[in-house]
Amino acid sequence: MTRNRLTLETPNHDLSKVRVLDGSAVDAYLQDESKLTGFAEKVLVPSDENGISSVLNHATGNDVPVTIAARRTGVVGGAVPEGGVVLSLEYMDKVVGIGEDDDGFYIQVEPNVTLRQIDDVLRYGRYEGLEDLTANAVSRLKNMGRHLYPVDPTESNASLGANAACNSSGSRSYRHGPTRDWIRRLRVVLADGSVLDIKRGEVFAENGTFILDGAGKERVLTIPSYEFNNGVKNSAGIFVTEGMDAIDLFIGSEGILGVISLLELRLIPWRPMLSCMAFLPDDDAALGLIDHLKTLEDGPELIEFIDANGIRMIKEEREEGCLFSNMPEFPLFPSAAVMFDLPLDDSIEPRMEEIGTLLNSLGSNLGNTWCAHEERERERFRSFRHAIPEAVFSYIASRKLHHPQMHKMGTDISVPEESSGEMMAYYRKTISSSGLKAVMFGHLGDNHPHLELLIEDMDDYAKADNLCHDLARAAVRLGGCPSAEHGVGRLKRGYLGMMYDESQIEEMLGLKRQLDRNWVLNPRVMLGARR
Amino acid sequence: MKILLMVKQVPDVSVSGMEDGKVPRGGPSVLNPQCEYALDAATLLKSEGDEVIAICMGPPSARESLFRCLELGADRAYHLCDPDFAGSDVWATAKTLSRLVLERESDFDYVFCGQKAADSETGQVPTMVAELLGVPQVGACYRLAKGTGSVHAWRERSGRIERYELGPRALVAVERGCNVHRLPSVSDFLNARRKELTVLTRQDLSINRDECGLKGSHTVVRNIHFLSSSREGIKLHLDDTSCAIDTVLRSVRRRGQ
Amino acid sequence: MKEESCSTCPTKSSCAGGCQRSEAELAEMYDLDADTTEGHMVWVELDYSTGMPELKEASKELIAKARSFDDQRVIGILFGPESARNAAREAFSYGADTIYHVRHPSFTDFNLESFTAGLTAVAERVKPNTLILAASDEGMELGPRTAARMGVGITADCTDLEMDKGVLRMTRPTFGGKLMATIISNTRPQMATVRPGAFPVPEAEEDRQGTVINWPMNPKPHIEPVESIASEEGACLTDAELIISVGGGIGNLRNLELAKEIADRLGAEMACSRNVVEKGWMDQDRQVGQTGNVVKPKVYLALGISGAIQHQTGMSGSQNIIAVNNDPGAAIHQIANVSIIGDVGEFLQRLLKRLDEEEAADI
Q1: Which of A140, A264, A521, C58 is the most exposed place for a label (fewest CB within 10 A)?
Q2: ∠ CA A57-A62-A64, rounded to 5°
Q3: How far is A48 from chain B, CA to nearest CA, in Å?
């Protein structure tokens, strides 16, 4: 038995159990959070893996493009169809069970389960109805105390299947890495309806190939040979490494190679944390604090930044609008803010004293640093941070009334640590010369801030589009990635050409052709139309 | 001036726990909202030389709520924590709290507390504590201010607004306050860790086992049932013509008869 | 501190209210057979607003309810000047057999200290089986203060009472009205405060007779307000029949003005959710919910209110809830009798236009 053999299961197909929506019922499935609108003939809603398999088998047989949709919270248009059918996974939203192995506990979920759902299970201990995947796993987990799935993409209503498909990361990825690192097992339905069951650590590429073994018929699957940029947060293109684990092929490939029908995710023991939000006089002081936080041992789980424009926007919104009304006055204004979490143990006092000394040298102090340790208060911090994108969304929505073609303009750029200063300088220079208004916030711990442009009209829109491309090119030049966590989808296909040359893209196309000969799976996502 | 601040920890109903009508079990707990107002009032009234002492009876997790009091301005705290206290009704609760006061802090000037707990909503404990301590009370207070040698308390009763000037030795139950919950700073947090938080058990207060907890309670819960909150409602679309407006006006004018 | 957590029996952790012991077993367990108390005592609250002392509606309810328990005596206790004696006849007509009249000219006004002393003294003399009070502002203080003085249990704010062979089963909502707990007391008298309006007021039996016992008493010193003014409008909210309540979904101040104008024209009281108070758009005394007022109007028109559990706590007792909210998933739609999915601003404009048209037609 070779180590690169993947065994295909070939289920019987029965389309009759799949729910079909057509006519005006389809309308609800044509948009996602990118606000792009597409078109489709039908929506097919399977209730189990066999349903998915039946749909895909039929689609491949009849050359029907399939767009995969779950909660439709993506921002790059990945779930927006361009003809064909939508495969909606909405019925597959069950948390199945708990298991345990040498590396600890894991949770098994169907693809449409959300982060919020497993958070509810783990936080409140709602284990009723969960299966024991290994002996007494549920009751053992109960006894071991609270556990946590450590990846926390901003949108907690996104489905975990989608998180896996675009290898989502979040603020805690600073410490815990992206979704990829936490997936233990996947079941994936391929375009022809056959199914792979892959556990991490069992099947690895050999000489750039896997062997697909379906009912005695073997074929070779050749994977691309380019070097995937793994030095930064990167959700652009298909992940490959030498001797890669087969499971990684389907994580981050945005549904163009297969449909995830079941996931097992690793859990870690929860530990108490102190969430802090430090206010400093300006952006430079805040960046100074971030540099220090990165040097800490057993450091923060997350390091998030809100620039001075963002703090001003929150303050204005609180005074005039509806959001943030329960937020106390900022201890320092004008200011920029840094959010970070530290483990709440005996080390907290000396560490805080050290941070206090640094804050003093940066023009602030621990009195200007909010902290929270109770669950409710920590949630408040989270919502402050998440409210910035919300405020930007509501701003853009109001502009969209006058300029219907307008959509949100922002960046999702990560760069390596050594280039972070240079990239920041470039942000400033180009923003200021463009004359656009912008707020910057996000995962500066990972050198991955989000820049959101507050565009007013179509002139601004054009300028912003240029600016974003300019920044993306700069990022690639500095060894970074212009699509760090949102994926490529339909909106950012242009970025792929910045990161990969023709032959590398041809390798991706080749892989896609081997697994999806009729090009039916998410045909417009990432690689674009059939080639 | 010595102010005793009696607080309770309650399940946090602002999280998704209550949506399906289930009592959150093992979910997060918070300082009772009306106790938060009492805390705000106590720490705002406090000036140099005054002391605010927070008191809470509850399971080990209630320490979090006392810690919040210490962060936001209380000077010391007592945590009445003993499995024997579990299951206390309003009588047993009031009795245990007043025993602590009489044994340890009998020279208090004021007792502040929240009017009602967000979970049980009885609103009885403050009055019973006042009686057991033999001091007058002002309940349903919505505003407090410092006078000379007194505390001014405003309340509303049967359509009238009353202002009291309370000399020392009185209890105030606070019902309303500012909705913006304060956030402690890291300095507050570090200071709170250095403040005294005394855990007291039944034996520390020489309370007989039959006098506290479930055994010392005078009322017992016979059964609990859930109410289904969903009503069979009519759903209308505003765009549906003027039908929506008609329905509203009809209901409003009939006053729901 | 789990007040009234679960627990009928000492093995509390396991039964969580599901305990199926019979009343007889409980009586034995709590030594209830030693009970020598008799009769049901009701605090009779008087209203002097017309000049003549009259029974408050809540007191009529409670007397009639006590009458319906069993065939034991119903004893009323009222506080007041000489003239309050006339109210005794009214109390008899709803079912009281005996009235203790605690007399002093100043007792037209509530005095927590004196009333506690009087109520305790009479209860200790009469040794009633039950002692019930209305859960009015005053009853909610007099009840527990008296209970603490006598060292007995009390159940607050009940919505139902049932008598079962001398054992009073008291039912009250808890956890924001999502749960109903039935509670019994192991001390005598069995004390409860009862939410006004919980029971119907029956027809008075005009010729029913009873005995009045005078109980002279000098008032105890008590703390008095240094200032007392009629509150401008605040108090009306809890008694209002029609409430228009606005939440964050009202959107802007212009819509709020429209809502106020409509309230004015329909004779409704304005209320709001916490969110609106936080924005400074309305005063906190207009807030409905866990940290605000508890209202139970005949019609509650909720505009742009999402219906968080804290808000529901304050208004779920409304007879008829009409919700306008553009989010079909808003929790308020779950509990509304009529849900209107749509923009609040547009709703207000249409409603106002309709009112204008009707007015024009009237002229």
Answers
A1: A140
A2: 90
A3: 26
pTM: 0.80
ipTM of this model? Answer: 0.85
- The answer for A 455-514 residues in CB contact with B (under 8 A) is none
Q: Does the CB of A401 have a partner CB in chain C at under 8 Å? A: no
- Of the partner residues C147, C183, C342, the one whose CB lies closest to the CB of residue B237: C342
Q: Is the model more confident about C111 or about C30?
A: C111
Check which CATH number belongs to the domain holding C193 and give it.
3.40.50.620
Cβ C278–A325 below 8 Å, yes or no? Answer: yes
Stretch (H or E) spanning A285: helix A283-294
Contacts of residue A326 in chain C, CB cutoff 8 Å? 278
Strand arrangement, sheet containing C154-158: C154-158, C190-194, C130-134, C40-44, C74-80, C98-103, C211-216
Task: Give the Cα separation of C161 and C304 in Å (integer).
Answer: 37
Q: Cβ of A404 under 8 Å from any chain B Cβ?
A: no
Tell me the residue range of the domain where C281 lies.
236-356
Q: Do A322 and C278 touch (CB under 8 A)?
A: no
Query: Using one digit for the tens of pLDDT, what is the confidence trace for A395-444?
Result: 787 787 788 888 788 899 999 999 999 999 999 999 999 999 999 999 99
CATH 3.40.50.620 fits B2-211, yes or no: yes
CA B113/CA B125 separation, integer angstroms? 9
- Give which of B80, B110, B127 to mutate to test C binding, by max C Cβ within 10 Å: B127
Q: Quick check: C154 and C110 in contact, CB under 8 A? A: no
Distance from CA of B224 to the nearest CA of C (A): 4
A224-282 confidence digits (pLDDT tens): 999 999 889 998 999 999 999 999 999 999 999 999 999 999 999 999 999 999 999 99
How far are the Cα atoms of A267, B170, B181, B194 from residue B190, in angstroms, in the given order?
31, 32, 19, 7
In a 10 Å sphere around its CB, with 0-12 CB exposed, 13-18 middle and 19+ buried, how is residue B231 labelled?
middle
